[in-house]
Amino acid sequence: MTPAIRFLDVSKIYSLRSGDVTALDNVTLSIEEGEFIAVMGPSGSGKSTLLNMMGCLDTPTKGQVFIGEKDIGEMTDDELTMLRREHLGFIFQQFNLLPLLSAIENVRLPLILKGGDPGCTDRCMNILAEVGIEVDRLDHTPAELSGGQQQRVAIARALINDPEILLADEPTGNLDTKTGAQIMDLLVRLQKEEGKTIIMVTHDPTLSEYADRVIRIVDGRIA
Amino acid sequence: MNRPIFFLFAIRNLRLHWLRSLLAMLGIIIGVVAITSMGILGSSLVLSISEDLTTVGDTIVVVPHTGGSGMGGGPGGGGISSDNTITSRQLERITRASVPHTVIPIYSGGERIRIGGEIGFAPIYGMRTADIPILLEREDGQYLRGSSGAMIGSRLAETYSLKVGSRILIGSDEQPVRVTGILEERGMGFDINTDSAIVVSERWYENRYDPSGYDRVIVKVRDLEEIEAVKSSIETSLNRRETEVDVYDTRAILATILETFGRISTFTIAIGGISLVVAGVSIFNVMMMSVMERYREIGVLRSIGALRREIRRMFFYESLLLGVAGSIIGGILSVAGGYLALLVMLENTSYLLAPSSLIYIPIGMAFGVGTSILSGLYPAWKASEADPIEALRHE
Predict the structure, then answer these.
(1) Do the interacting molecules here have an ipTM over 0.85?
(2) B17 touches chain A (CB under 8 A)
(3) Strands across the sheet with A70-71, in order?
């Protein structure tokens, strides 16, 4: 079976005025479908770059990155965007809900981008129930929701297009421990029950216990 | 399908920053009103002038070729005919060239006049008495019959309270003439201006001034279509060897004047356009602010699968909405703006609703929308080119 994500000898070099910075240095890795991976490492180690590349937001300077069977280095910006839209779900530390839209509109946004039904179908209601958002909160704007609620809405948004891969960048970083644990339980459930591949960046060692495997990165290399 | 969502984004963002949006829109409103009112003013100016002048559209004026014709615009040539007049031989040739149209030779001069205790100056035209009814309308009294007597312009009559039967003393020798009739107001003409003038018989004029020739010859053309033909016929007859006379047709003069006014109104519209440029800069500024403020949002949208062109469209809608709303409001207000401009500048608002005035409303609105499109292009492009990673990191 094709791995969900494959890195072949991937390097990423950023050219800054102060000189070249190697964010990733000959990284080779493979993530199977349905795996829960924690990516750990000190700040500046290159774990964000790794996640961005998995999320098709960045392309390698050298080497190849495959999402499923697709080599993202050979795709146009539009193709990468479509890939994100259809197959990837992003969960951010800052939740990153769009302030101009209500909770339900935020959730439905990827669906609308895809050209789908603008209404909330059964599936959509199921997802909302699954992530645990109370229905009476749906018309609130993000600013009117607590951090935990915002992250639930954000996870629902990541799930709405039924992506195979969820990419989470410190998903509990802005939440208290109890709410953070609830969110982690939700992610684990998505992996176990729906078979999602989850890649989570964190520097909290306790969170790595939720993962099947930990990828440690130091100075752009897998340690 | 996903078009409405980006439209929604644009509307909501404009509403969120309503004051900013309103100010940017105000710029467009002012610009559209400025362009449109100036356009309406210019068009009304042209309309009012051409209405004054259309009555003389069927006239050809022949003047001696040395300038100083009183036309104001006659090209000053080298003085070949020494005395600046049209001789009776030349008149004969003009008459022959103009058959079957009416040829009216005119003497023109001017002299000091005295009416009772008042002293003034009046232009004096000498015409064959038979020609007077062809060229001029009578308001009161009788047309000239014999060689004595005079008809006077209505403005002259008004200025000096002259009536039929009044006496005017002409020149320093105070030769008396009696007013036999008063002419109807004629407005500005290219042939003769009689409103403030005295019209006397040809014989009276010749007796008093002993002129060497006529100062101008007017040809009344019955059919407007024939003006060109008559004009060139006169030209070939008199100007073949050397340029003896200048021939103007009033329609061409009219066209020149209208063209001049057209240029003036284009100029004033251009001044109005400057305010639109300012409005464009303000929209540009607002849009750049919007892009910078929502940089992170752009990153989020890109990461969840919004295409570059969709981001572009989102911001483009925003500036377009500002432009369209501003232009519609501006278009409506410019009716009032045009009314005001006409009231102040022309003191006559009757041409406000003429089609050639109203056409400036859609023109002004088009410029308003165009400005918003132009100034929205770069910010929208800038937004769509944002690197999603950098945008997501943006605080």
Answers:
(1) yes
(2) no
(3) A19-31, A5-16, A62-67, A70-71
